[in-house]
Model the fold of this input.
Amino acid sequence: MKTVLIFAGTTEGRELVEALVRSHVSCHACVATEYGSQLLKSNDYVTVHSGRLDEMGMRALYETISCDIVVDATHPYAQIVTETIKKSIEGTGISYLRLLRGNDVLAQGILSYDSIKDCVEGLKKTTGNILLTTGSKQLAEFTQDENLRKRLFARVLPGLESLELCYHAGLEGRQIIAMQGPFSSEMNEITIREYGIEHLVTKESGAAGGVDSKLEAAQRTGITVHVLKRPMEEEKSGKKNQGLSFAETVSSLEKLLEVSLSRGLLRIVLAGIGPGSGEMMTQEVKEAVLHADYLFGAQRMLDAIDSSAKKYPYYLKKDIVPFLEELSEKTYRDLNMVVLFSGDSGFYSGCKKLYEALKDKEQYDVKIMPGISSVATLAARLGIDWQDGRIISLHGIPKEEWIPMLREEVQTEEKIFLITSGVQDVQKIGQVLSDLEDKTKLTLHFGFQLSYPEEKILEPTCKECEDITEEGLYCGVIQNPFRKRRNLVPVLSDDWFERDKVPMTKEEIRKLSICQMRLKEGDVIYDIGSGTGSVSVQIASLSSSLRVFALECDPQATVLTRKNIEKATLSNVVVVETMAPDGLDALPKADACFIGGSRGNLGKILETLRAINPAMRVVMNAVSMDSICEMYGLLKSFVVRDLSITQISVTKTKEIGQYQMLNANNPVFLFAFTFGE
Done:
């Protein structure tokens, strides 16, 4: 295997060493200072050489390690070092690669200079404090003018060599900011405001050198930016050399070494950021964001996060997964990715779907970080517990689904927390609950823009909810101290229903029939021949998650069905005035069907039901011998399972004078079965 030596004076140089080490390719790395050796330490696959070398020192090192390939990954402004490296390999036969970081286009409205001398002359014409972020090596060129020196504040690496150069250049301790980057725009802004900076000096180092975050901070604080242009590297041919990108350098190394370097690891953090403002993020999440190379999330979240990372307004699995797959194929660096989710990552969040899509991929290291949910925040603001509350999220749920659920829950739950999609949901909540407010003594609270400066806690009546118009984020809680306890079985009696002269399935038969339907939460049910709607109302009152379609062709019966639905304040029953099987094809697929009357169309009805759902559960009541025989005969023409035929005789007592006399109802045959293959 050929021997590789990397002059690793930049972040890119260190990352190239890491790529080789990760691929179990041995190499040597040169760093100029002791501080550099702290950032890049020797291990089984890399030997670190610390200290500056002249041309002879370089040649001696090449001979000692039997060097075959030199990679110059020094700083773009380190022209003298680059020229020394080039001279040191002349006549040695050593292959030379120049890794040069990308140079992003700078923003408009800045002052740029071809040399430090020009920059100094430009700064002399200004007033106010100056922040130098150009390093320590050329400080002396900025401090020769006494008046300029007094205005300078230099941000340098926290190494002894850097500090000595600062003192040698005449700077006092108060003028020295010794810190290790990278620096976010927020950190840059804090520095600018803390030291009263009016001018910032930087090199044209691109995003990798932190220029983007400096420009962003300068724009927010309104200071002037002075940029030293990048020198162009000259070849003997006279052509200007921009070097190789990181990916091009890796590709060239692979050819020279005849190996394939392993791709970088994507460390992915799925982070809940709380209600929205940065102050509500956990320290764990803040640390992840601080070290992120890429940030993903809804635009409002990205706007609230100050970071030098590359930001992408993606939060759906379909957008993020392809992006990560493409990036993983072409990067040789270990990268930190953070996907931002509002509230808590495990609380009505898109985190779960993304985690399932990423967790088993070898090229990813996926971690979930929780956040503070808006529900927990609202409960804290109100001084109430939330562990005993019912939580309903209205995000992405059609109104026809959550409205009946809310109407039911608010009458039986003492405390309901609501995650809304905005002010329109708040208005609709008030509209839906207005007729229940007086009966149930509801108390409503809404948190508006929780954690943001414009945060408000609202306590409207249901009617006042309809007048709320301010756009923003809303989280609510409805309290009902006088809730009624939820029924666990059908309880409506025959006397409860408005009946007139329309036939009705009697109470005991009704309850047994519903039990035979074996209903589950979220089921869709047909009630064919609904009559007074007693079966439909009884089913719908069991759970707001059920959707019932009451089919009836008699106009008088449909009027009664609607009256009974209104009396029960149900929103999950739809009356369809038709003669079955007409109209069934236009309805959502049912899980179960109750047949109370067929008007001679029983065979066609069963054929249609089976076509709609070959696994539908069907329950039918038969009273006359004709309907009993017809049903029994039809069953022979269908494949069914779980068949149950039960004859039910109910005798109740009737008070006559001072006596309780037996009063028998007509016997009823209850047919129950599930269509089978």
